[in-house]
Amino acid sequence: MAPQSTESGEMVRGKNLAVEDEWVAGVDLDAFKADMDELKVELEVAQGPEHEAHFHKIRFYTELFAVLGTAAMYLPVQWLVAPVLLGIATTARWTMVGHHTCHGGYDWLKQPKFNRFQFAAGPWRRAIDWFDWMLPEAWNTEHNNLHHYHLGEATDPDLVESNLDFLRRLPIPQVLKRLAVAIMACVWKWWYYAPNTFKHLVHQRNPKLLEGSNSHEPWIITDLLFKQPLDFLAVFTEALLPYAAYKFGVYPLPWLVLGYDAYINALWCVVLADVVANMYSFVIIVTNHAGNDLYRFDTPCAPYSGDFYLRAVVSSANFATGTDAIDFAHGWLNYQIEHHCFPTLSMLSYQQSQPRVKALCDKHGIPYVQESVFKRLLQLVNVMVGASSMRLYPEGVCAPSKAGKARKVAVSASVCASVIDTSTRRSPRISKRRLGLTSE
Ligand SMILES: [Zn+2]
């Protein structure tokens, strides 16, 4: 029988699988889960003083960039020193300090300020711990719950292929689509990400709002302004305005002491720093799960099942890894595979676990994608403009793990999120007790 051809590639003779997907048939999910569970426990037990010192080292360098960037606001803005340093600091506060603390990666320190349920919680702590366009509790809902536990599914709010469906289908030249992506990269945090994370917080606060609405349609600030003015007002006053007032109002103000020109120079520094932070975070974050060599899925899976670990690997891409300097430059988003397998570990744990996770994937015949962030950026842009597509995971080919199979029938999108939820700490409608959570 001649091999059949599909849009995803040549079919494997007699197996109804594309050549690129043939590995799926050889995976033993139970054995993979057993190995990954064992590694998870080992990594958790190993977290101690070395990991704490590492965390504070990363925090120190993050704040050093902020201090140097602030001092550099004295220099002419066109030198770009302050915008770059401040842009790095803003991104580092989010992707390394905020991200891992909000996941509970440092709960074991037993220090309230680094506990996931207290870090950046409420207006005051937000301003001190992690002040950015996104409301921390909105980010926790969208990222810690929905993205992490629906990775690559239609309900994953960060599924680029779905979110950019409009641009992918738009009948305009590719060059214009790529230009649109470049513009998007300069503004995406306040234009798209802050409103969209806020949307999921609103829906969590009041699930009735989900009824009759297209819950998968992203909230974009310019759309809200014209189509949903009340939602626009909520996003603007609760998430955007406090940060904008501080960043562009209060922060450059002291430079008035040196005169009006110094103040305008400082103001331009923070405006350009925001553009730098947008572009930088776009490159290291949005690239994590997009490409024609990564998979998306039609069905949900149970947390920490064999399926869960498998999806974390084949729906994520790592970048260059191995040293603190490399990892800091990538905002620690270069360990996306390990982070999705074990979302609640310290940054040092990811660095230490990477060769071992890769070895386990090799052992079990699971593809492990690790490439330069710039190659992944090209993959991302191609998906965004419709020049390429994600691979659809061939369901039901490898034997589901026993734990996964038993739980899968009980897993709905909402239950999956609620069971694992690490971040409903401040939701007025859903208490931690109701979700069976502790502060650990
Ligand atoms: Zn995460």
Q: Overview of this structure, please?
A:
- The protein has 440 residues and is mainly α.
- The chain has one domain (5-426).
- It contains 18 helices and five strands.
- It has helices spanning 29-46, 49-71, 81-102, 122-129, 136-149, 160-163, 165-169, 174-205, 221-227, 229-250, 260-285, 306-314, 324-329, 336-341, 347-364, 373-384, 402-408, 413-420; strands spanning 5-6, 9-12, 17-18, 295-296, 391-392.
- A hairpin with a 4-residue loop joins strand 2 and strand 3 (17-18).
- The longest helix has 32 residues, at 174-205.
- It is globular and about 70 Å long.
- The chain starts with a strand and ends in a 20-residue tail after the last helix.
- The model is unreliable at 1-14 and 406-440 (pLDDT under 50).
- Bound molecules: zinc ion (ZN).
